[in-house]
Write a structure and sequence with these properties.
The structure is a single chain. With 329 residues, this protein is of the alpha/beta class. It has helices at 41-48, 114-117, 121-134, 151-162, 174-183, 196-203, 221-227, 249-255, 275-291, 308-317; strands at residues 2-6, 15-19, 29-38, 64-72, 84-88, 97-101, 105-107, 142-146, 166-171, 187-190, 209-214, 228-236, 258-261, 299-302, 323-327. Helix 4 links the parallel strand 8 (142-146) and strand 9. The structure holds NADP nicotinamide-adenine-dinucleotide phosphate. NADP nicotinamide-adenine-dinucleotide phosphate binds at residues 40-42, 122, 126, 146-147, 149-153, 170-172, 176, 191, 215-216, 237-238, 240-241, 262-264, 315, 318, 320.
Length: 329
């Protein structure tokens, strides 16, 4: 088969469409004939050599795909050869075929075409595992999405609205704030111009955010703790602003706040924090939101998979809203 490989760590130009061995379905796995993959910011880091795959995972880039099941490994039940699926991957999505644990497969949600479904598993599993499973966001609470027009943010705004939360979102330019509003955000704040905690408190009668989903990390830590409401939960998933920060524990303690940092990719398949449990939760709670139109896939563009370098360059250049899909043909 063909896949995108990385000639050496570097810029988008190191990505090459080359011939590699076909994957084989191990016990509990299926092989999927890939119809499309999608770009995640983590893919750029892996290409640059900063984000190696977890032990045992394919070293081919790609955290999600859609396609048709081509082969079933030993012990797989509930799926048939030919089924149309999308899948959460630990790697291997930028390829014509990928092997994946059957527990990480999802059906294609009603009303979504097979190519578009490629951009759903990573955002849906990340958002659900954070704001539902870890953050326990509930109706009437205030949710702040730091980075509202990211692939993650465009999905999180809609899921939080569907859960009945009041939603605030940050972005870096007026037209991007407008897109957050169109997606359902009640409060939008420019992260360049504004004091985000002060603006959020003004808009929420001094309350702040019960749950924050953050893609910035260290640089945003102090502001996020200021923005937390009493009993607030700060969930950090991105480190675009660095990995090491200082926490004013007194401030956090007085709010009875919590800070959690979660990664999806390195989780085991099974167990209470495993990917299988997350995929099952997404299928039960998020797929119905997509089926009835409360949550829509937000697609910025489609770039053919062999041209993945162009898609990486586009995401690096900024201005992308939602996902870039990588259809095979
Ligand atoms: N831990 C996990 O399991 C996990 C899983 C998936 C994703 N992630 C992380 O989540 C983040 C989003 O992923 P993605 O693939 O959706 O990325 P993406 O589409 O490339 O989005 C990156 C976003 O970061 C925003 N941003 C940059 N600086 C910011 C700041 N100071 N304040 C607020 N927002 C800021 C950008 O906003 P503007 O464009 O408006 O500047 C942009 O929307 C990445 O950091 C990724 O690594 C983590």
């Amino acid at each position: 088969m063909h896949a995108i490989t990385v000639r050496e760590p570097g810029g988008p130009e190191v990505l090459e469409w080359t011939e590699v061995p076909d994957p084989v379905a191990g016990p509990g796995e299926v092989v999927v004939d890939v119809v499309a993959s999608a770009v995640n910011r983590a893919d750029l880091l892996q290409r640059q050599g900063y984000y190696p795959p977890p032990p045992g995972a394919s070293d081919i880039i790609g955290l999600e795909c859609s396609g048709r099941i081509a082969a079933l490994g030993e012990g797989v039940e509930g799926w048939q050869v030919g089924d149309e699926v999308c899948a959460l991957l630990a790697g291997g999505g930028y390829a014509e075929k990928v092997a994946v644990p059957a527990a990480q497969l999802l059906p294609i949600p009603p009303g979504v075409d097979l190519v578009t479904a490629a951009g759903l598993p990573e955002v849906a599993c990340t958002v659900w595992s954070n704001i539902v499973a870890a953050g326990r966001l509930s109706a009437g609470e205030t949710f702040l999405m730091q980075g509202g027009t990211s692939g993650i943010g465009t999905h999180a705004i809609q899921v939080a609205k569907a859960l009945g939360a009041r939603v605030a979102a940050t972005a870096g330019a007026p037209e991007r704030l407008e897109r957050c509003r169109e997606l359902g955000a009640d409060i939008v704040i420019d992260y360049h111009d504004d004091d985000v905690p002060a603006r959020l408190k003004e808009a929420t009668d001094g309350h702040g955010a019960d749950v924050i989903l953050d893609v910035v990390g260290a640089k945003g830590l102090a502001a996020n703790i200021d923005a937390l409401a009493p009993d607030g939960r700060l969930l950090i998933i991105g480190l675009q602003g660095g990995t090491k920060g200082e926490i004013d524990l007194n401030k956090l303690m007085r709010k009875r706040g919590s800070v959690t940092a979660l990664q999806l990719r390195g989780r085991p398949v099974d167990g209470p924090s495993g990917k299988a449990a997350i995929v099952a939760g997404v299928r039960e709670q998020v797929w119905p939101m997509i089926a009835d139109g409360r949550v829509r896939p937000i697609v910025h563009d489609r770039v053919p998979l062999p041209d993945a370098a162009k898609a990486h360059a586009r995401l690096e250049a900024g201005g992308v809203i939602g996902k870039i899909l990588l259809p095979l043909r």
